[in-house]
Amino acid sequence: MSISQWTAEKDELIRVSSHFYHKGWMVGTSGNLSVRVAPDTFLITASGRPKGMLGDEDLVSVKGLYELPGPSGNGRKPSAEVSIHQAIYSELREANAVFHIHSVESNIVSEWASDHSVLLPPLEMIKGLGVKDPSLGYRIDVLENHLDVSRIALDLKRLFAQDQVFNEFHLPAFLIRHHGLTVWGNDVLEAFHRIELLEYVFRFMVAMGPSGSTPPMAGFH
Ligand SMILES: [Zn+2]
Fold it and tell me: Which of 23-32, 60-69, 91-100, 125-134 is predicted with the least confidence, judged by mean pLDDT?
């Protein structure tokens, strides 16, 4: 299939990118979005492009989930964080869209990690991540940030391998400490919903504070 036939997918990513930009989650050129268009091929936002005003030419195709992509036909390079998307698509068949944003709240929450994860509050909203009973106490994984992004991708693959060994339920999302949130879904709409609800949960957590309870109001003891 030629890239010119992926117009609908490109339009979706451009719309989502603009929405996230206006939320303050993809400020400047930060963050990256992708969608799988064939078993071994995905479209991803190009490196260094303004996320509030992407055009068709700012989506580039990456073929080969295990290899670094070559230059695209239009001269644009894939996001510098493409290896994270490759790791997810190659390890998880159910992932067909991957969104990565740099929000303030996700970075604050990432500071509260202990044992490489953060406990999420038992909010009803968490059900949107595939959780049946939010009160069971689900944790979101927090990976260390590395200047060499391929090291983050390697850590992610190790995490997926661990989850398979221990047969644990893992959320379709993870944090990179002091960097941002990554979410995947079966399609663009599912990934979109998941990132919005997780950002809601993070806003709630930031309002409550690291101890999980609101600070006492002045004058009340
Ligand atoms: Zn990033």
Answer: 60-69
Distances (CA, A) of 134 to 22, 128, 138, 169, 209: 30, 10, 7, 13, 19
Say which CATH number the domain at 189 has: 3.40.225.10
Q: How confident is the prediction for the chain on average, in pLDDT? A: 89
Percent of the chain with pLDDT strictly greater than 90: 71
Q: How many angstroms is it from 101 CA to the middle of ligand 1?
A: 6
Q: Is residue 218 part of a domain?
A: no
Q: Over the stretch 179-210, which tens digit does the pLDDT of each residue have?
A: 999 999 999 999 999 999 999 999 999 999 98
CA of 81 to the centre of ligand 1 (A): 6
Please, which residues have CB within 8 angstroms of residue 133's CB and are 6 or more apart in sequence?
none
Distance 102 CA to ligand 1 centre (A): 6
CA of 103 to the centre of ligand 1 (A): 10
Residue 182 burial (10 A CB sphere; 0-12, 13-18, 19+): buried
How many domains is the chain partitioned into structurally? 1
Task: From 48, 49, 74, select the one nearest 60 (Cα to Cα).
Answer: 74
Q: What local confidence, expressed as pLDDT, does residue 221 receive? A: 44
Residue 216 lies in a domain: no
67 is in which domain, residue-wise? 3-208
